[in-house]
Amino acid sequence: MKHSIRLSFIVAVVAIALFAAASPAQTLVTTIPVPEPLAVDVDPIAQLAFAANFGQPILSIISERTNSVVDTISFPPSPLGQAELDGVAVNPITRRLYVADTHATVLYVLDEHTHQVIATLPGISGQITVNLRTNKVYVTGIFSPVTIIDGNTNTVAGTLSVPFSLKAAVDLAANRIYIPSQNFFGDVFVFDGDTDAQIAKIPTGNFTSGVAVDPLHHRAYAANQGFSAATSSVSVIDTVTNTVIDTITSTDPFPTLVQVDPVTNRIFVINQVPNNGGVPTEIDTIDGTTLQVINRLNIDSTPEGSALDLVHGLLFVASSDFEAGVANEVTVVKVRQ
């Protein structure tokens, strides 16, 4: 029954997005000051975004309707000191929030509505992804195995061996998990969403830092943050064969984060450029058919996390001030008109 409800929700979200789709165009909506965001996720049903802050032990809750912080959730210190949040994810079906404290190495499970902590899982921290089809939660980390959390019981259900793993992406149509490995050569690991068995290991490029999946066009896109502009790229993956079928080299230097809108067949590549003399960071919009950059939008430097509200066509980018002259903020971009 729960599985049927989850599938119905996914179908409804896609239907709403397709119905709401208009011309694909990208415009900056606003920038929202928050303490020091390292991660962001969205609940398209509640129209809320959640930003996990490293500099202060709070989760900032942003309203999509007002483009402002409407609430915060504070997290307690541990014997090691103040909480430092580095991951957040939301399951809009179960109304559960998952927040990681990297300082104490703790994963919190909260009720999205009441903000009450439901469970505390020690020894787990990192970037977080929810598989809505299975209600499994994947926590990735550069120096730790990928931890799988059962969202029904809030217990550890297993681990996956992916070296230098970063934030996972889910193919909701095929029920597969794609996890980038930021090793020297760069890979994307593919796992079955039900059995967690490894399906493929796809060589992508130097230091793969992000991956996004388009379930409608059967494509995945991996951002490869190479040594220079010449060695940086975006790999185009056929998710039926799990092979790289093309490479996009026209993006700005150091592609770091990637999101994809299946409705408009647009890929958004967020570049992390060192702040040398005020060099801007840009979001490159790529046409999924021609694989050409069709738009560039300047944003603040040092992007650390991103999330796409597929229903309302909004892209959220979390940026932190790890470099001089860079603001702590969440940038909101409208990706459809």
Structure description:
The protein is mainly beta and 337 residues long. The protein has one domain: YVTN repeat-like/Quinoprotein amine dehydrogenase (Methylamine Dehydrogenase, Chain H). It is built from 1 helix and 28 strands. The chain has one helix at residues 2-20, and strands at 24-33, 37-43, 48-53, 58-63, 68-74, 85-91, 96-101, 106-111, 117-122, 127-131, 136-141, 144-150, 155-160, 169-171, 176-181, 187-192, 198-203, 208-214, 219-224, 233-238, 243-248, 255-261, 266-271, 281-287, 293-299, 303-309, 314-319, 329-336. A 4-stranded antiparallel beta sheet has the order 1-28-27-26, with no helix packed on it. Strand 22 and strand 23 form a beta hairpin. The longest helix is centred in the first third of the chain and has 19 residues, at 2-20. The mean pLDDT is 90.
